[in-house]
Design goal:
The complex is a heterodimer of chains A (210) and B (361). In chain A, 46% of the residues are buried. Chain A has eleven helices and six strands. Chain A has 210 residues and is an alpha/beta fold. Chain A is globular. The longest helix of chain A is centred in the last third of the chain and has 17 residues. In chain B, helix 1 packs across helix 2, helix 3 packs antiparallel against helix 4 and helix 10 runs parallel beside helix 11. Classes of the chains: A alpha/beta (210), B alpha+beta (361). Chains A and B meet through helix 6 of A and strand 1 and strand 2 of B.
């Protein structure tokens, strides 16, 4: 199944590189290099997934998500960046991105990540999994016990992601189906986006998200 | 016309002593003799004339349009204070009227931007008069140390404050330019060199990747020094540094994820060495391009996982060389009261789990 994708990144060379590396199953229907260009383009094209750079000059990736969401709530965002600082990663996920990958990712893995996000699942890099385990690691739930804590199963899944396991390998190791693993990861994403945990709100505030 | 914004210059050429009277006369366009007469009269009024003359000599610059040096101006202003007080006392006004007049004038001038110093001087004079309250115009009380000190302090105060501010501004400017120079030097030393190397070795993809990776790591360490990977003397930073070395030596990519951190101690240092062995083994024998490392640390202990998706091996049939390495890792961990668990499936990869439980402090 072909997925329609828009690439938003202010580095022209990088956009060209990504374009050439994505597999046959990905159709790049547009490119933008600023927030102002991206929002109307995404609204017009209604792609399945938007590959979104976190650091855009006129407002950052969050601004694109905020601008597109009201009109095209079905569009999904996969954040892509050189920065792997916890604050940047968490901030863009809390803004609505369904996953975060770094720019050193291979073409094949990026293609797979796009498909996963298009299917409605979340994509966690090992580093993001580490950040999440860190953020949910200690302390009491702030407001909502369900949102502010990870279940034991979710922790196990995240830990395996952090160790570099792929979903199939996680499923085999924990004797689950891949679908179940995906569900766990999606639940973690939801918690990451909605929890009021101190670390998450602090990181988001540092990025002026709140 | 007298330009009140600048202090008139002395007229050395036409002057009798220091050109003070001549200079003032030139500015006011009157006969210099009249100015000299004024000074003489004021001298009779409690010695104010002399003080005023000296003050003027110090405050007035030698060239038109110039400004006297800082020290001269300060001393000149101090003398001006004394002179004003002497004049007022000499006029026989009640002391509180003198004080009030001087304070009012000083306050008014302080509010005008260009004349802050003079305003401050007048305020100082008023305060000096107050300090010698009850004085009847005699020279004695006027020159009490307290009055002098108080007056000088108030005069010098604003000047000192301004000097301090200028010095701060100067320091900020210097720090900024130093920072700019540092950025330029770093970019020159590392990034430019790397880019030149990349162009030269562009045929060797592996080498280019290595160069780029090393440069990326260096820049990250510089730009984001507070990241866990770079916090000195911690487990995560040590693992990061070790991984960088293994990457360079063997030409592989090592991705590091972490949760938590811990300060290094002897046991953790051993853990880092064991992890290094595991990474090097994976780089040498697995055939994989990428190795995944995960570090977790909290009060309960530390674990390091080193995983590759390479050829794997069968522990039962492992060639003696590799078995030796495995035992080396296990032995090291055991000696520090930790464990090493090595799982491998031929064709699928290997994972080394290094565990160091901690006794609770």
């Amino acid at each position: 199944m072909t997925r329609r994708v828009v690439i938003v990144d202010d580095h022209g060379l990088f956009r060209a590189g990504v374009r050439s590396e994505l597999g046959e199953s990905i159709d790049v229907v547009g490119e933008a290099s600023t927030v102002a260009e991206a929002i109307p383009l995404v609204v017009a094209q209604d792609p399945d997934v938007v590959l979104l750079d976190v650091h855009l000059p006129d407002g950052g990736g969050q601004a694109v998500i905020a601008g597109v969401a009201p009109e095209r709530p079905g569009v999904r965002f996969l954040a892509l960046s050189v920065s792997d600082a916890a604050e940047d990663v968490i901030a863009v996920v809390r803004a609505g991105a369904r996953g975060y990958v770094t720019k050193t990712i291979s073409g094949d893995e990026l293609t797979e990540a796009i498909h996963r996000v298009a299917d409605g699942d979340a994509v966690f890099s090992p580093r993001l999994a580490g950040f999440v385990l860190d953020a949910f690691g200690s302390g009491e739930p702030v407001r909502d016990a369900e949102l502010d804590e990870l279940t034991a199963r979710e922790r196990e899944v995240l830990r395996l992601i952090a160790r570099g396991y792929r979903y199939k390998e996680i499923a085999a190791s924990l004797h689950l189906s891949v679908k179940t693993v995906e569900t766990h990861v999606s639940n973690v994403l939801r918690k990451l986006q909605l929890s009021s945990r101190h670390e998450l709100t602090r990181w988001a505030a540092e990025r002026r998200m709140i | 016309m007298l330009d009140l914004r600048t202090v008139p210059a002395r007229d050395r050429a036409n002057g009798a002593v220091a050109g003070v009277s001549a200079g003032i006369a030139r500015a006011l366009e009157v006969d210099p003799t009249l100015v000299r007469l004024l000074f003489a009269i004021l001298t009779l009024a409690g010695g104010a004339g002399i003080a005023l003359y000296l003050a003027a000599a110090l405050l007035m610059p030698s060239e038109p349009g110039a400004r006297s040096g800082g020290t001269r101006r300060v001393i000149g202003l101090a003398l001006l204070v004394l002179a004003i007080v002497a004049v007022l006392a000499g006029l026989g006004l009640p002391w509180f009227v003198q004080a009030a007049a001087v304070l009012a004038a000083g306050g008014a001038l302080l509010l005008r931007r260009g004349r802050r110093i003079v305003g401050a001087v007048l305020v100082a004079a008023g305060v000096a008069v107050l300090l010698t309250s009850g004085g009847d115009g005699a020279d004695g009380p006027l020159l009490t140390p307290a009055a002098l000190a108080g007056g000088l302090l108030l005069v010098v105060g604003p000047w000192l404050w301004r000097t301090a501010q200028e010095r701060d501004a100067e320091r900020t400017r210097r720090i900024r330019s130093e920072e700019r120079a540092e950025v330029a030097a770093r970019v020159h030393d590392s990034v430019l060199q790397t880019l030149a190397l990349v162009q030269r070795e562009s045929g060797d993809a592996k080498r280019v990747e290595q160069l780029a990776r090393r440069q990326e790591r260096e820049l990250r360490a510089w730009l984001f020094p507070e990241g866990e990977l770079f916090k000195e003397d911690t487990l995560v930073a040590a693992i990061g540094a070790t991984a960088a070395e293994v990457e360079e030596l063997h030409g592989v990519r090592i991705e590091i994820a972490s949760s938590g951190n811990a300060a290094l101690d002897d046991d953790l240092r051993a853990l880092v060495l064991a992890a290094r062995e595991a990474m090097a083994n994976a780089a040498r024998f697995s055939g994989a391009d990428e190795i995944s490392v995960y570090v977790e640390a909290d009060g309960g202990g530390a674990n390091v996982f080193v995983r590759d998706r390479g050829v794997g091996f069968d522990r039962g049939e492992v060639p003696s060389g590799r078995r030796g390495l495995t035992e080396s890792i296990e032995g090291r961990m055991r000696r520090h009261h930790g464990t090493a668990t090595i799982t491998s499936t031929p064709g699928e990869g290997t994972e080394v789990e290094l565990s160091l439980p901690r006794s609770q402090p």
